[in-house]
């Protein structure tokens, strides 16, 4: 299956700001069952865009707009080829926990086992773990499948109920949140079991018949856990899904802190407003980029080329978007 993605981000400022420095993580990854065939990043006002990869293989694009501007618009467009992941067994063998421990001991998974900025143990999380009986039992795959469904049923999905910097306790207390909260809570419950678990940022192609809780006009987040003899397997607790062909991965990290779609700063004391629109369209053949909504000729168009980004300067306010 092929997917065409258009991701529009607009920062509007009440009065002109003097500089914006921004990083984006919007280019879909090419690995496992996914291949990014085409990617364009367009920015207004015009600027130079530099691209590089971090140590996890995520594509990062960096730009600096030094002049005064009252809005910043970013349009990311991609065409991605997806293949369905291999079918999983109903359960792993009885030796799976020992096999997992051996694989973890041999590999370099410590980043995905330790607490991180938004995925860390708290008393409320420990209470939830006890209530849901999260422990080593049966086999790792069965535990993860069960937890995926438990979190889906335990928490309500409520848009804008938390912020990008909300700790997991906010969602735990309210028993509601957005997809990044579901992902952070699952990661925080899974890592103490000795299962490496990571955060995935991307898109979900939602179809009306699927009745997904996450909106189709926004980015999405889920988790991947390492299973012995299988590799990294995706779980989507927001929608009680195993991550599959409709889950399009843009970045992986310890938690949201590592992989926001946009992250930057600007100089000035003006209030800002963020608008985001996402569209994901499926097709049986690769398509060209959207010709119905062409990018204006006076915008900066990214030419992919690995370069070192310029050293950022100090600035006063942060700006990033929630999933």
From TrEMBL:
<feature type="domain" description="Transglutaminase-like">
    <location>
        <begin position="171"/>
        <end position="239"/>
    </location>
</feature>
<dbReference type="InterPro" id="IPR038765">
    <property type="entry name" value="Papain-like_cys_pep_sf"/>
</dbReference>
<dbReference type="Pfam" id="PF08379">
    <property type="entry name" value="Bact_transglu_N"/>
</dbReference>
<feature type="region of interest" description="Disordered">
    <location>
        <begin position="304"/>
        <end position="323"/>
    </location>
</feature>
<dbReference type="Pfam" id="PF01841">
    <property type="entry name" value="Transglut_core"/>
</dbReference>
<dbReference type="InterPro" id="IPR002931">
    <property type="entry name" value="Transglutaminase-like"/>
</dbReference>
<dbReference type="InterPro" id="IPR013589">
    <property type="entry name" value="Bac_transglu_N"/>
</dbReference>
<protein>
    <submittedName>
        <fullName>Transglutaminase-like protein</fullName>
    </submittedName>
</protein>
